[in-house]
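Section 5: illustrative case.
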């Protein structure tokens, strides 16, 4: 199954938090993420070797909600204020405890520049 497309907009200087619930089946029910980890890279272009942003469950940028199927992407206000790029591409992968990897989401990330600065 192909990754779903989702555009992300990060407001520079503000806390960024995006909660996604992964559901499947008929009727749709949350997919358990118990035992899983997640990772997400943002790059200028898909082929670019430089990573603009690296969010993982290990570095605290992604939190998984276990049986609820939720995936929370989070950046502090200080982290978004420090972003110097304006747009990029990303994908989000779920890694199962047995090593299987599922590319769940992909798309474009854009930064909405901050006007009010401390």
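Designed sequence:
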């Amino acid at each position: 199954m192909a990754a779903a497309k989702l555009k992300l907009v990060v407001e520079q200087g503000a806390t960024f938090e995006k909660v996604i619930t992964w559901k499947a089946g008929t009727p749709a029910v949350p997919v358990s993420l118990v035992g899983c980890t997640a990772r997400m890279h943002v790059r200028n272009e898909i082929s670019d070797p430089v990573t603009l942003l690296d969010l993982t469950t290990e570095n605290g940028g992604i939190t998984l909600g276990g049986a609820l199927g939720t995936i929370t992407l989070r950046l502090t206000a200080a982290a978004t204020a420090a972003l110097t790029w304006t747009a990029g591409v990303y994908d989000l992968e779920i890694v199962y405890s047995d090593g299987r990897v599922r590319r769940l989401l992909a798309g474009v990330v854009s930064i909405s520049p901050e006007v009010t600065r401390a």
